[in-house]
């Protein structure tokens, strides 16, 4: 091989020391071999001496078919031929019990994965009220609350909800913004325009009951627990008093209230039951006050002892509950709406009656 065919650096090395010239030339030949020669070598069935130091097989020139490897793979035979057992970590298929952050090497699967600990199969069917919401109410709400903005409409910028510091002091630098003037420590949610992404819907229903008689007799608490369990289908959570209050005879640690949280199908079932079975049977009931709400899309109302008796689960087994121990309870319907106006619009479409002046 002529020296002029070598790169300039190798040419200098060859001129400096003439002894390793042949070795350097052979290495250069292997390194700068053309792809055509490498491709033609397997076809002729011979491998030149210059290419023996290269890879024996390549993904580009292998004649092996992956289908053959798949058919030849036998996991049972491979397991039986294994002389020692794999470490215990290889047999742990369950997802981690706790979420340890996004950087942890073991990540739990999503809730939709059947292997997840939080996987819930279904829904296999929708309730009647939820079917009505999906087919009729949701499109109507989006149509009624649609706000058209023609192209080119100038959006008027609004002032910041949080006040900035005037930087008159070096201690103001890096401090978080201050809250608004006036009473209250939290800001109310800004009402968002309804579109196909954020149509209001029922997210959760909470039933809460404070049992005053449980201060003297725990039987009141047991009766209330059975009643809420039959009405909601959810085992109630018991809450104990955090502080002692001598004026009310309340001692710290005494169980005094119960709470049931319903989501999904159970929430729609409970609301459907209230609208179609209980509300029409309450005598002289005007409806839910239009002033109710927490300015964040949550509507609350309550049932007295007479209203709790009208639930079909209580009415059919009325003899099981002592009449004087039947409690009333409060109901809070939590929606995905960002204002009470949109929440009332949703519940009105579902069939909940409101009366009085409606306050946004």
TrEMBL record:
Protein name, entry field: Large ribosomal subunit protein uL5m
GO cellular component, as recorded: ribonucleoprotein complex; ribosome
Biased composition (Basic and acidic residues): 77-87, 158-170
Protein's UniProt keywords contain Ribosomal protein: yes
UniProt xrefs under InterPro entries: Ribosomal_uL5, Ribosomal_uL5_C, Ribosomal_uL5_dom_sf, Ribosomal_uL5_N
Chain residue ranges for the region called Disordered: 77-121, 157-184
Domain Large ribosomal subunit protein uL5 C-terminal: start-end pairs: 255-354
PANTHER family: 60S RIBOSOMAL PROTEIN L11-RELATED (PTHR11994)
Entry-linked Pfam families: Ribosomal_L5, Ribosomal_L5_C
Record-linked Gene3D superfamilies: 3.30.1440.10
Molecular-function GO term, any one: structural constituent of ribosome
Organism: Hyaloscypha hepaticicola
Biological process according to GO: translation
Family: Belongs to the universal ribosomal protein uL5 family.
Keywords attached to this entry: Ribonucleoprotein, Ribosomal protein
Compositional bias per record (Low complexity), positions renumbered to this chain: 88-102
Ribosomal protein recorded as keyword: yes
């Amino acid at each position: 091989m002529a020296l002029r065919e070598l790169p300039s650096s190798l040419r200098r090395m060859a001129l400096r020391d003439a002894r390793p010239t042949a070795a350097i030339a052979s290495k250069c030949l292997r390194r700068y071999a053309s792809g055509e020669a490498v491709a033609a070598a397997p076809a002729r069935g011979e491998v030149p001496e210059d290419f023996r130091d290269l890879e024996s097989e390549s993904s580009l020139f292998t004649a092996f078919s992956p289908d053959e490897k798949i058919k030849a793979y036998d996991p049972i035979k491979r397991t039986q031929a294994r002389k020692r057992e794999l470490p215990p970590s290889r047999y742990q298929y369950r997802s981690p019990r706790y979420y340890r952050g996004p950087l942890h090497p073991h990540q739990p699967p999503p809730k939709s994965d059947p292997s997840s600990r939080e996987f819930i199969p279904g829904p296999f069917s929708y309730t009647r009220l939820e079917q009505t919401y999906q087919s009729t109410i949701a499109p109507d709400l989006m149509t009624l609350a649609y706000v058209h903005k023609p192209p080119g409409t100038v959006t008027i910028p609004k002032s910041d909800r949080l006040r900035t510091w005037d930087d008159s002091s070096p201690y103001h630098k890096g401090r978080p913004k201050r809250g608004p003037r006036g009473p209250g420590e939290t800001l109310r949610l800004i009402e968002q325009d309804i579109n196909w992404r954020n149509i209001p819907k029922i997210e959760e229903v909470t039933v809460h009951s404070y049992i005053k008689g449980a201060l003297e007799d725990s039987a009141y608490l047991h009766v209330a627990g059975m009643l809420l369990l039959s009405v909601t289908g959810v085992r109630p959570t018991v809450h104990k008093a955090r502080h002692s209050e001598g004026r009310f005879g309340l001692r710290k640690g005494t169980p005094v209230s119960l709470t049931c949280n319903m989501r999904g199908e159970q929430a729609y079932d409970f609301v459907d039951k209230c609208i179609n079975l209980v509300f029409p049977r309450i005598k002289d009931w005007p409806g839910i006050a239009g002033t109710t709400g927490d300015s964040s899309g949550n509507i609350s109302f309550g049932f007295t002892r007479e209203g709790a008796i009208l639930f079909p689960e209580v009415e059919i087994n009325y003899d099981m509950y002592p009449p004087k121990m039947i409690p009333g309870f409060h109901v809070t319907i939590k929606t995905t709406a960002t204002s009470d106006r949109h929440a009332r619009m949703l519940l009105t479409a579902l069939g909940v009656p409101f009366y009085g002046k409606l306050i946004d």
